[in-house]
Amino acid sequence: MPVVLYTPTPEHTRNVFRPEVYAALGREFDLRENTLGRPMTVDDVVQGIGDADALVTGWGTCALTAPVFDAAPRLRLIAHSAGSVRAILTPDLIERYVRPRGIVVFSANRAIALNVAEATIGLLIMASRRWVEHIQHVRGGGWRTPEIPGNGQYLSGATVGVVSASTIGRLVCRMLRVFDTRVLVYDPYADPEAIAALGAERVELDALFERSDLVTVHTPKLAETDGLIGRRQLSLLRDGAVLINTSRGSVIDEAALIEECRTGRIYAALDVTEPEPPAADSELRSLPNVYVLPHIAGAGYYGYFEIGSSTLRALRDHFAGLPVSGAVPLERFAEIA
Q: Quick check: is 276 catalytic?
């Protein structure tokens, strides 16, 4: 029976594993649980990983270091029951230990992506229909008013620009099919055939902003994506356009976004800002055409519990000699979130 060192805390376990899934994990593997009542430190991991065939990590897990790998001669799978593995692994460790030893790294990011993609569709509908303003108007004693349009180009039949064919971006593209949309995708790394398979058209960034009724951003946080969307792109949006960002706040030039939104010309729905939370006096909090959420697009029982289920599947498949769905493409580590 493979030995699995399980580092997450009980709180993390309750959040992402249904009881029956976690019970199956304990039955099928020699599970060495974190019983410390706190997150495990690097020293704790080093002491416990000596005979482990797999390591399960999650939110709050310490960043792995060279001594961890030096102490783990049997380690063949790292199963990250959370999203990005950048918090626990560095390019140096991947090149020194992970790839030479053939260690598989699994990430449950697709499970979280399910929640974010659902939230994105909701934000596209909500912002384009301006439901927040209608609700506030009615709560204030009003009813219909020409100041808040009750008819227009909403999601169905719209041209939607998707910035990045990331895991979330691809899920959003698939969900958009239901709404009879025309989908434009900007992603310099994506295979054109893969974008075509999504039923989308590959375009350059400026063209995407110029042609879209609605734009949704799913770009990973990388050095080259900081400030990717600036004054030029925002100025290309047509009047009444909607911009959604559920990726990272740094992808959009915030000063440029505030400047454009001051005109009232466009609408923005942001699940992320830079910094988080935005400053108390940030205009993002007060502009009537900007809707800010407290970084909760990834939340939801469905996706969270899929994290646990997919982690169990990764362990099962790996030790059965099968390909691991959700394995991180380590050769492309520099390009992924």
A: yes
